[in-house]
């Protein structure tokens, strides 16, 4: 999540950045269906249907990390994997660094994913079996991916460095500092092989994967958080998403089908299976640090949506911080 001061709808800024792409000026009303969190995302009418403009200030993002994300998406497409694809700007660039009255912004545009989010589809074992297969195919391609050094996403050490740095910059829960130390020490002990480690999506959750029943194609979106880690991270996140989104009676069957689908394509490193709960703790700490950074600054007379968001995030932190600093194993 970006800092709260960047979460406001700024339509003038969106229109200024959209001008770098071909679009239908008579259909700007589609931009009303925007969302702003880790990035600002506005739909727009492109030449071939709806596209999505994504942007964030350069204080929030690393240019090389965005370029690495776009490079990976192109690699997946060239290898027959249906990940959402970037749309070139008028000048042919996939990533535009744009000076604006509000500062410099990194901007990209993406095609719309075909089909519907898995969360919007009726449950079936076949649907979740294919969901698992889609993640396994992504991991197989990730194993073979060899980007140039300047186009590399961060690894788990880089993420832990960011966590440590952020915790040192803001008043943080002391238990979070201890949790970060425990997690780093633990990850240092995990085995790294070509089959269990690579570039993970990190957000391969039900609302980030689209399915088209006509083509039977799964299309993941939002690779913005991808980083190098153990593939089990993606599996754990997906399982956690299933548990959150489905009712308690359906979720166990969905998880079984998901894991069976994954294993039909790629083996799961069973030696890491006992550590699923530690991966969940790592994800919770990362979420806390993002919130800590985003919500630190406060203002008088904040709008109602911001007050509500703070309350929601405070409740989240209370839930995930209960076990910080306790032994991992």
Structure explained in plain terms:
There is one protein chain. The chain has 329 residues and is of the alpha+beta class. The chain has two domains: 4-111, 2-Layer Sandwich (Phosphorylase Kinase, domain 1); 117-320, Aminoglycoside phosphotransferase (APH), C-terminal lobe (Aminoglycoside 3'-phosphotransferase, Chain: A, domain 2, Alpha-Beta Complex). The chain is 42% helix and 15% strand. It has nine helices and ten strands. The strands form three sheets. The protein has a five-stranded antiparallel β-sheet, with helices on one face. A hairpin with a 2-residue loop joins strand 4 and strand 5 (103-111). Helix 4 crosses helix 8 (276-295). The longest helix has 20 residues, at 125-144. The radius of gyration is 20 Å and the shape is globular. The two termini are 30 Å apart.
Short summary of the structure?
The protein is 42% helix and 15% strand.
């Amino acid at each position: 999540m970006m800092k709260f001061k960047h979460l406001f709808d700024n339509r003038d800024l969106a229109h200024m950045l959209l001008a770098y792409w071909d679009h239908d000026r008579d259909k700007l009303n589609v931009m009303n269906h925007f969302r702003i969190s880790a990035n600002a995302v506005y739909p727009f009418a492109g030449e071939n249907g709806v596209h999505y403009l994504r942007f964030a200030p350069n204080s929030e993002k690393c240019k090389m990390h965005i370029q690495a994300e776009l490079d990976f998406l192109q690699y997946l497409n060239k290898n027959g994997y249906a990940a959402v694809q970037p749309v070139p700007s008028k000048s042919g660039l996939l990533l535009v660094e744009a000076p604006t009255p509000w500062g410099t912004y990194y901007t990209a545009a993406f095609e719309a994913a075909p089909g519907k989010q898995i969360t919007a589809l009726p449950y079936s074992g076949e649907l979740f079996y294919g969901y698992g297969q889609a993640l396994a195919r992504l991991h197989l391609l990730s194993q073979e991916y060899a980007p140039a050094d300047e186009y590399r996403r961060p690894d788990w050490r880089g993420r832990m460095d960011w966590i440590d740095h952020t915790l040192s910059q803001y008043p943080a829960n002391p238990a979070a500092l201890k949790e970060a130390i425990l997690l780093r020490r633990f990850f240092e002990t995990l085995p790294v092989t070509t089959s269990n480690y690579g570039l993970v999506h990190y957000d391969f959750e039900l609302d980030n994967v689209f399915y088209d029943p006509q083509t039977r194609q799964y299309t993941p979106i939002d690779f913005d958080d991808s980083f190098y880690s153990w593939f089990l991270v993606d599996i754990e996140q997906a399982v956690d998403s299933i548990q959150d989104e489905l009712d308690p009676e359906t979720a166990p069957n969905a998880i079984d089908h998901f894991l069976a689908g994954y294993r039909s394509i790629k083996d799961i490193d069973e030696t890491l299976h006992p550590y699923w709960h530690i991966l969940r703790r790592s994800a919770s700490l990362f979420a806390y640090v993002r919130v800590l950074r985003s919500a630190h600054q406060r203002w008088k007379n904040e709008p109602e949506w911001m007050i509500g968001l703070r309350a929601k995030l405070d409740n989240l932190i209370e839930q995930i911080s209960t076990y910080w600093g306790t032994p991992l194993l």
